[in-house]
């Protein structure tokens, strides 16, 4: 099915099943520990050996010698794979560095060997007996040090301009010019990167933890120099991804090579301390923002430039994306600058681009609003735009930022905020309230599904879509149930297998809208097949209560499959509407904090997100996505930071003891409101993405609340107490 004109009325609009707060259908499997994660196919694949990954001890240079002898003769060892004995490997298109390094080393903890043994402990012990000699080469490890030399955009991402920024900024009544920094961050998904490889002859079956089945399959085939048809990827349950599992990673490649070398099923899990340096991370940014307004606070000039670093072949963090679209202003400049660094690869992490971009932009907006003497909620409303500011003939499909801000201000009690900082006390706590806009583009990826109807009237959906903890199983079941007029219990959903049709996968908050749209397309075909079989007209027939009805005729769905299961397949393809309309999602985030006047410790007390993100397919799973994202925003604002050793070139705090993510005790009262935002331009589901939107803007709202509480403006994340304490008011 091609989706090239806005959706009209369709069976999803009935909202009998879709749009309801159903519990997750995979919940019982997860709460009883019976959902098989990649490391846990004990019954299906008994007797798997264990692979332990060895990471490079240097960031850049060469391996000059590698002595495996002692390790090879250690107890239980079955095989050791290195670049030396792995055979010629290809390289996928989506990795900057190779996934099995050596002799050249491109980053710290790049995998250089996998040791296979009967037990995990034997593999780990033997790994420590590999003796490696390195020749260390100098590398570039500091973004700040590289920044001055990087003044032009990368070739494929030129600056975007309108009007004449420089002149307009110089002439503006109110000017704000400041630089903001965000640190490197690690995804830290609960489930580590894990793969279990089995060779059946020349065919590889890989059970893994990956967001994008088709990407994983093609990249793995490329790496192993085998045809794609010889690779099957299975990933039905995933313990979090956040972008860290969008791509093929070393666990998958090394499990495949290890299983081949040991002639046994092998499973490889990256130990937590290997993950931050071996896998990808969200790159640090330095963001220079200049905003000029007239006397009334209307933006006349806005510029946002962002510096980030990456390995050769890597891409920049697109932190200026939202600044192209969020606010009006005739004179504009946005641009990316990319420094070459020899740190591990930077890549997508939840809401890549907008998440770190809004961390900077939405503090800058708070600052310029104050300078212009305009309330920060009103400032954002004043500078709203209903068209793409770089292409004013192009409208947003739906844009309810103003409604988000007004609704949130009212619900949160914004009018009670004291606009003068450091005025409100609750005992030892300095109290403050902050706001930020949330923005994330709505991405569309084609998505396929296969549906079956059997003689019992059971509808089975198969697609390689993944559920990374998001609720895909449930919303896909809801979609099929709505389309066929059957109860949720009559729908079986099978996900995460490359034997199923290629879906959109889970990434970029496109998963919910586009994967269900693919299921919608397949279900339209199934309705046609059923109608034809039973002599009904597919367009006018009604599917309800497990029946197909037309006029005074009815028949049971099961009857259509009495002589054999009906199977159909389709793929939704999005053509052109994203060119005609700008499709984005919007939010307003409100936060209340208390900052300890003596220690500078920040505690978030209340949070509210008001989201306009298309039709909400399941308010319960959507709310869970948003509160999870808000929690991530607390981490980004207050604690999360990979500390770079700029001499040796690696992330020092590489475990959950030192890379601090929020725990339950850090999380306050969180409230989420979804505005009615049914958007026929986005898909037949009229839905959009919401998971990443929940993060976008949160950290800035916290930083702004801290400023309101203390009068200290911190432009360097995370906002830790050492950055506050010197500016806090006198004790008293
Ligand atoms: Mo997301 S960072 O595209 O998984």
From TrEMBL:
InterPro entries reported in the protein's UniProt record: Ald_Oxase/Xan_DH_a/b (IPR000674), Ald_Oxase/Xan_DH_a/b_sf (IPR036856), Ald_Oxase/xanthine_DH-like (IPR016208), AldOxase/xan_DH_MoCoBD1 (IPR008274), AldOxase/xan_DH_MoCoBD2 (IPR046867), AldOxase/xan_DH_Mopterin-bd_sf (IPR037165), PaoC-like (IPR049648)
GO molecular function, one term: oxidoreductase activity
TM segment ranges: none
Pfam families for the chain: Ald_Xan_dh_C (PF01315), MoCoBD_1 (PF02738), MoCoBD_2 (PF20256)
Top-level taxon in the UniProt lineage: Bacteria
Domain spans labelled Aldehyde oxidase/xanthine dehydrogenase a/b hammerhead: 32-138
Name under which the protein is recorded: Aerobic-type carbon monoxide dehydrogenase, large subunit CoxL/CutL-like protein
Organism encoding this protein: Rahnella aquatilis (strain ATCC 33071 / DSM 4594 / JCM 1683 / NBRC 105701 / NCIMB 13365 / CIP 78.65)
